[in-house]
Amino acid sequence: MSNDFKILTEFLERLGPEVSGRELTVPLGETALKLQRFAAGECDPAERGEVCELLRLHPAWLRWVANRVKMARGGDAGHGVATRLQTDSE
Fold first, then answer.
1. What is the model's pTM?
2. Which of 48, 61, 65, 85 keeps 20 to 30 A from 38, CA to CA?
3. Which residue ranges make up each domain of the chain?
């Protein structure tokens, strides 16, 4: 093994999980479905508690949830339902 790789290997072994990679930032499967229901406002209080705990453990998923909330609102960039209803009625 070349000296460069040996140095890198020793470095990674010393620091372990801190430099081993980043966590997956996209939820999958049942978790994604639960977060989607949360974003759409379809969770009961118990499910909301579960989702809050998931987001506490995986803060990178907040961006994913925020994007789903925007999509649930029709991608109105924060203008709200009132603006969409006004536009739809014109």
1. 0.56
2. 85
3. 24-89
